[in-house]
Design goal:
Layout lengths: L1 H25 L3 E2 L2 H15 L6 H13 L16 H16 L17 H7 L3 H18 L9 H5 L1 H12 L30 H6 L15 H11 L4 E2 L21
Antiparallel strand pairs: 1-2
Helix pairs in contact: 1-2, 1-3, 3-4, 4-8
The structure holds zinc ion (ZN) (2 copies).
């Protein structure tokens, strides 16, 4: 039971981060009606709970990441930090600056992301609500855990969003293979990215920043894109950008996988 909960929370949390924060909020790869947007926005909050990310803060930071990928101005390049923990701590400070309106980014990074004061500020940034979520996760473990060490999984539930951010930003620019020479260090960590629902196709995504499908080769699989195709077929969302399931042959030959 505990494993099923952990697995569901992991997959759903990274799925909604990819679908809502990343592909919709930051990139606008698809559109939907205002009511559908609200439903998706609220579902994202329910799933991410204690570690819910403010879509505005996420979008600004992520757009900076694309604009400055693996340079000194990149908010979270693994090549400028000693370890993933330091990188995420630094990312958190920048994210808070934008999420709490303490700092203004360049104007080109502003706008186009969903904003909902009730969810993003009142609930999402409330420490009382974060503690309520922490209490709920803990209560589940108290009720269903069968061994003491299962409680060691709890901190991952509390910090699920940042944990995914750390894995994607660290591994996706450090480990794996490259299909394209993007002039940065982005990589595809897994050919079937079931771990982070497609987010680990960083090399493909930095090449085709607006493609809703993060897989670029026939043998690559992006799970979030598979779900998006179903949502588009059901007319819940409308894919705004070219939906090439398999891109035409890449402009550059794939480079041989190299160790970081
Ligand atoms: Zn992106
Ligand atoms: Zn990246």
């Amino acid at each position: 039971m505990v494993y099923a909960f952990f697995f569901s929370h992991w997959v759903l949390s990274v799925f909604f981060q990819s679908l809502f924060h990343h592909r919709y909020g930051a990139h606008r790869m698809y559109t939907m009606g205002p009511r559908t947007e609200r439903v998706l926005h609220f579902l994202t909050y329910l799933v991410q709970g204690a570690s819910y990310l403010n879509p505005r803060g996420y979008a600004i930071l992520h757009r900076e990441h694309h604009a400055f990928s693996d340079t000194e101005k990149d908010p979270h390049s693994p090549h400028y930090f000693r370890n993933a923990f330091r990188m995420m701590l630094d990312t958190k400070h920048r994210y808070d600056d934008y999420s709490y309106d303490r700092k203004q980014p360049e104007a080109r990074f502003l706008g186009g992301y969903p904003e909902w004061k009730l969810v993003d500020r009142t609930l999402g940034q409330s420490w009382v609500m974060r503690l309520v979520w922490v209490g709920l996760y803990t209560a589940f473990y108290v009720a269903f855990a069968t061994a003491w060490w299962q409680f060691l999984l709890l901190p991952i539930h509390f910090l699920m969003g940042p944990v995914h951010g750390a894995i994607v930003n660290w591994c996706g620019h450090k480990y794996g293979y490259q299909n394209f020479d993007n002039g940065d260090k982005s990589r595809n960590t897994l050919p079937f990215d079931v771990l982070c629902m497609g987010e680990l196709f960083q090399n493909n995504h930095h090449k085709w920043g607006m493609s809703p499908n993060f897989a670029a080769r026939r043998w690559e699989l992006d799970p979030t894109w598979q779900v998006m195709k179903v949502l588009a077929w059901l007319k819940v969302i409308h894919i705004a950008t070219p939906q090439r399931a398999v891109w035409p042959e890449p402009h550059t030959e794939p480079t041989v996988a190299r160790a970081a």
